[in-house]
């Protein structure tokens, strides 16, 4: 079974962490515990009240008074018990809510690099399935553990007064339970964690399938994918059965131990009574106490077992807490300017992960003020990575990326990204309305600004065609829009941010001539007033650029205009001859496969 390698370091004291989650609600926990306890006490009072009723019957007196009193106690007990259960359950839900809020904040603020190596489906299961496991453990589990321990200690103290010898025997038996539980509980914890990991794996597998649903179907890969899912489901079942086995064993051991202690105490105590070293009444009291102990011990064992489930969940939740988060702070405090941004990269080296080779080997170029800069180069030369470094999705390994002369690491992250509009290569749209898709980067944009970007990004036709205009749903549950439209929605979204630097990763797939012309017009229009950098895959884009940066295997090979580079750079000449995008360039077969 493949598991997600999430752990950066061993999680710290999950029990303490569980208590931290629950501690915030300690007042409600105490209230719930006390109410449940009182509900139980009224249960004890009922036999006594029944005795009074029967006595009153025997004496020929009126039974209505005692019966009414009994009814009142029964009702009171039921109400208090129900209230206690509700308070504990509500507190459990509150604990889960607190943990989920915390987790959501962490998940959404994860560094991009962390998400590269994780499986989103597994992360989702941590937020949904694992947090659910905490519900009862963090409340009734903790209160039961507490009350049973108090009862156990109380009984032991009384036993010590009655007979130290019999107490030693009892403690010996409790020790045996303790040791056995010490062996069993970690196994329950591990099995639960593995079962939850298998659930996470199922989530990841489903996400993988849904992410490439058409490809899976077109490849007739359903059967193989179902088998993978089934393997994960069976693994989860296997671990669940193991938990059931260990839990049954621990419950049986607990009651068996109390029963065996009862027999041993009876034997030894009986001997002591026969020898005259103990009163019969002391022995009877001791045995009664032993029976009384049965319940707290079993509850204690059950709670400890249940706790293992919660701790397994805490470990999985904590693994997310240990992941790298983005740090929104920065040192830059100067007011922001409205001018087009000044961008410079100096000697940038970068690798995606310490175990991977360098992607950039000293990239450097400048692009300042309004205008169009095109990044070109063979596929894999590191063009998109340049954008990722400017947006600070990743930090450089060495060298610097500066915006307005300030290293991007010194910018407060939100302020940095507020300067930039970013259009990704596959320009994803989010599930929701077209309006929500456009305004997500600029929630305070006015209707007039919205209409303006719709016009600029040549989206007017699309808006008119959609059933509810801007308020039509697009994405998964709405209208599916074409690749070219997606690209223009992404551009409109980026423009609405009024960026001082616009980063555009051109789609590598062919757009039709009308779409391509529309995109180019939008780009040139934007370049008149802002700094636009585009990863260019089309000749029409580069010929319009003020500056072209030619990249090759993680370095900048040449910088210049189209005319200069056609004259002076072999690679650029080849790329241009191949129209940059290769599939339609039969006349330059050598370029095929080197560009994307
Ligand atoms: N998230 C990532 N983790 C690890 N390696 C990556 C990651 N993204 C890109 N790479 C690698 O970094 C190198 C540069 O990728 P990049 O996407 O920057 O190239 P590109 O020039 O934009 O290519 P293309 O023109 O095909 O889009 C490639 O070898 C790629 O496999």
Automatic annotation (TrEMBL):
Q: Name one GO molecular function term.
A: ATP binding
User: Cytoplasm among the record's keywords?
Assistant: no
Protein's cellular compartments? Cell membrane
Residue span(s) of domain ABC transporter: 343-578
Q: Known PROSITE patterns for this protein?
A: ABC_TM1F, ABC_TRANSPORTER_1, ABC_TRANSPORTER_2
Family matches, as InterPro entries = AAA+_ATPase, ABC1_TM_dom, ABC1_TM_sf, ABC_transporter-like_ATP-bd, ABC_transporter-like_CS, P-loop_NTPase, Type_1_exporter
Source superkingdom:
Bacteria
Q: What Pfam family is a match for this entry?
A: ABC_tran
Keywords recorded for this protein, A-Z: ATP-binding, Membrane, Nucleotide-binding, Transmembrane, Transmembrane helix
What residue stretches are annotated with the ABC transmembrane type-1 domain?
30-309
Membrane topology according to the record: Multi-pass membrane protein
UniProt xrefs under PANTHER family: ATP-BINDING CASSETTE SUB-FAMILY B MEMBER 10, MITOCHONDRIAL (PTHR43394:SF1), ATP-DEPENDENT PERMEASE MDL1, MITOCHONDRIAL (PTHR43394)
In its UniProt entry, what is this protein called?
Answer: ABC transporter ATP-binding protein/permease
Task: Provide the species name.
Answer: Nocardiopsis exhalans
């Amino acid at each position: 079974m493949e598991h997600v390698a999430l752990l950066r370091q061993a999680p710290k004291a999950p029990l303490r962490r569980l208590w931290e989650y629950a501690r915030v609600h300690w007042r409600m926990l105490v209230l719930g515990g006390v109410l449940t306890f009182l509900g139980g006490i009224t249960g004890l009072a009922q036999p006594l009240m029944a005795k009074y009723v029967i006595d009153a019957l025997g004496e020929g007196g009126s039974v209505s008074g005692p019966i009414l009193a009994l009814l009142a106690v029964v009702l009171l007990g039921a109400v208090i018990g129900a209230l206690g259960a509700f308070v504990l359950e509500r507190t459990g839900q509150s604990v889960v809510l607190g943990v989920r809020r915390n987790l959501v904040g962490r998940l959404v603020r994860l560094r991009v690099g962390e998400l590269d190596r994780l499986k989103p489906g597994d992360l989702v299961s941590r937020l949904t399935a694992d947090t659910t496991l905490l519900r009862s453990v963090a409340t009734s589990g903790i209160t039961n553990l507490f009350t049973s321990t108090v009862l156990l200690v109380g009984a032991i103290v009384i036993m010590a007064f009655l007979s130290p010898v019999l107490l030693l025997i009892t403690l010996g038996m409790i020790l045996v339970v303790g040791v056995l539980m010490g062996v069993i509980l970690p196994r329950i914890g591990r099995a639960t964690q593995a079962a939850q990991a298998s659930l996470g794996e199922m989530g990841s597998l489903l996400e993988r399938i849904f992410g490439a649903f058409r490809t899976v179907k077109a490849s007739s890969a359903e059967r193989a994918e179902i088998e993978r899912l089934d393997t994960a489901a069976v693994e989860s079942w296997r671990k669940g059965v193991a938990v059931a086995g260990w839990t049954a064993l621990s419950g049986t051991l607990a009651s068996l131990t109390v029963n065996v202690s009862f027999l041993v105490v009876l034997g030894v105590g009986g001997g002591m009574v026969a020898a005259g070293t103990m009163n019969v009444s002391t022995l009877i009291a001791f045995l009664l106490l032993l029976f009384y102990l049965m319940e707290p011990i079993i509850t204690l064992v059950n709670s400890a077992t249940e706790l293992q489930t919660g701790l397994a969940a805490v470990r999985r939740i904590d693994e997310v807490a240990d992941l790298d988060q983005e740090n929104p702070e920065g040192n830059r405090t100067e007011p922001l300017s409205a001018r087009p941004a000044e961008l410079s990269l100096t000697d940038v080296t970068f690798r995606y992960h310490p175990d991977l080779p360098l992607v950039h080997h000293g990239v450097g170029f400048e692009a300042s003020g309004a205008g169009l800069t095109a990044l070109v180069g063979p596929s894999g030369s590191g063009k998109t990575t340049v954008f990722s470094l400017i947006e600070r999705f990743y930090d450089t390994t060495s060298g610097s990326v500066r915006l307005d002369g300030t290293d991007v690491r010194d910018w407060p992250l939100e302020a940095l990204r507020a300067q930039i509009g970013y259009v990704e290569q596959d320009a994803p749209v989010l599930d929701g309305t077209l309006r929500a898709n456009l305004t997500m980067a600029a929630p305070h944009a006015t209707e007039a600004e919205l209409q303006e970007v719709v016009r600029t990004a040549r989206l007017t036709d699309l808006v008119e065609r959609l059933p509810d205009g801007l308020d039509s749903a697009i994405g998964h549950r709405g209208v599916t829009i074409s690749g070219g439209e997606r690209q223009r929605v992404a551009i409109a979204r980026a423009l609405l941010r009024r960026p001082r630097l616009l980063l555009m990763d051109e789609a590598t797939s062919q757009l039709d001539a009308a779409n391509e012309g529309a995109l180019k017009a939008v780009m040139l229009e934007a370049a008149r007033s802002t700094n636009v950098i585009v990863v260019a895959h089309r000749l029409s884009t580069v010929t319009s650029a003020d500056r072209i940066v030619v990249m090759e295997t993680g370095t900048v090979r040449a910088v210049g205009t189209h005319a200069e580079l056609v004259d002076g750079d072999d690679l650029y000449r080849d790329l241009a001859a191949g129209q940059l995008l290769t599939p339609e360039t039969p006349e330059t077969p050598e370029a095929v496969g080197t560009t994307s």
